[in-house]
Specification:
Keywords: Glycosyltransferase, Transferase. It holds the Pfam family Glyco_transf_9. InterPro entries: Glyco_trans_9, LPS_LOS_Heptosyltrfase. The protein is an alpha/beta fold. The protein folds into two domains: 167 residues, Rossmann fold; 153 residues, Rossmann fold. It is 36% helix and 15% strand. It has a six-stranded parallel beta sheet with strand order 3-2-1-4-5-6, sandwiched between helices. Strand 8, helix 10 and strand 9 form a beta-alpha-beta unit.
């Protein structure tokens, strides 16, 4: 398929226009995972602030397009990969609209480590022969006019994504992801009041994750929940599709409260109300960081450098068997202390 696609779409040779002449930029991030959308927002912010006269459009998976920070995106174009087979007429209409938009530059922003044929083909169609910026992934560089080599020194995914600014000559405008979700505090506050959690510092605990090797055992999360309760925090266990039994076990094993089913907007609102979030490496972890909540990320696969955040309000914990909960609680104490919200320590513990 790659060979056929490169025959149909020869390597583009277009040069980048002067920055003052750039009026419309398309960024393509078609991945359906919430975290990957959020990790793209620092790139979007840098493009918008670095090209103030240009419109920045984002083609994003339809299911997760809502998480994108709208103040740095002039238009979000929802993309449904399944439409290629289920509603081909809709897919063709999307291709026509991308072509007619006459983008000055297209940025293909899939992971530097993996080639996305879908994103590459969308970028070539949208560019209409114009410049396409993206990471150099070997043979896939034939889809790009401006392939960008990944620097291994940029270990974090955010820094790697910001490498795509290099052909523009633009500088990053911060490493923090962002979202507008959950700014209306009323629904989250109403739920917390209903659960009897209002009036105390809140910790949100997320024991789920999409990938099994990123799920810390529920009994370990329950031990952390008990430690946070002993420190005077209210603890709310949240969960995603298919994770309710896991979350219920953590809540019942610790005395923490169990959240009802939440959509992303309500989850973001709850995180905005929280003094702390403890989460496996997952979409809710990145969402907590994006709304500005002090967050402890639990990493089990030695990938904290890539998927963690280089921010003062983020701590990566890599628990070991036997003392994992203590390590995570120590990270919680550091963040709470730095935020000036450290509750009293439980009796018998050392500072």
């Amino acid at each position: 398929m790659l060979r056929l696609a490169t025959l149909l779409f020869p390597t583009p040779q277009a040069a980048l226009p002067p920055l003052a002449d750039v009026r419309r930029v398309l960024v393509i991030r078609a991945d359906e995972r919430v975290g990957n959308q959020l990790l793209t927002t620092p790139l979007l912010r840098a493009l918008k602030l670095g090209l103030p006269a240009a419109e920045v459009h984002l083609l994003a998976a339809a299911r997760q397009a809502q998480v994108v920070a709208t103040r740095h995106v002039d238009r979000v174009i929802p993309f449904e990969k399944r439409a290629l087979f289920r509603r081909p007429w809709r897919f063709l209409a999307l291709l026509r609209s991308l072509r007619r938009a006459r983008y000055d530059v297209v940025v293909e922003a899939a992971h530097w480590s993996g080639f996305s044929l879908t994103a590459s083909l969308l970028a070539r169609v949208a560019s209409a022969g114009g410049p396409v910026v993206g990471h150099d992934r070997g043979a896939s560089a034939r889809f790009l006019s401006h392939p960008v080599a990944h620097d291994p020194a940029n270990a974090s995914e955010v820094r790697a994504k910001l490498e795509l600014l290099r052909p523009f000559g633009l500088t990053p405008r911060g490493l923090e992801p962002e979202t507008e979700l959950g700014r209306d505090a009323a629904p989250a506050r109403a739920l917390l009041a209903r659960l009897g959690l209002a009036g105390r510092p809140l910790a949100v605990l997320n024991p789920g994750a999409r990938m099994a090797d990123r799920r810390w055992p529920p009994e370990a999360h329950a031990e952390v929940a008990r430690g946070l309760l002993a420190r005077g925090l209210a603890v709310l266990v949240v969960w995603g599709p298919g994770e309710e039994p896991l979350a219920r076990g953590v809540a019942e094993g610790s005395g923490a409260a169990l959240a009802p089913a939440t959509d992303l907007t309500l989850l973001a609102g709850l995180l905005r109300e929280a003094a702390l979030c403890v989460s496996n490496n997952s979409g809710p972890m990145h969402l907590a960081v994006a709304v500005g909540t002090p967050t402890v990320g639990v990493f089990l696969s030695g990938d904290a450098a890539r998927w963690g955040h280089e921010l003062p309000a983020f701590a990566a914990a890599e628990p070991l068997p036997g003392n994992g909960a203590a390590a995570v609680l120590a990270a919680c104490d550091r963040l709470l202390s730095a935020a000036g919200a450290a509750p009293p320590r439980p009796a018998g513990t050392r500072p």
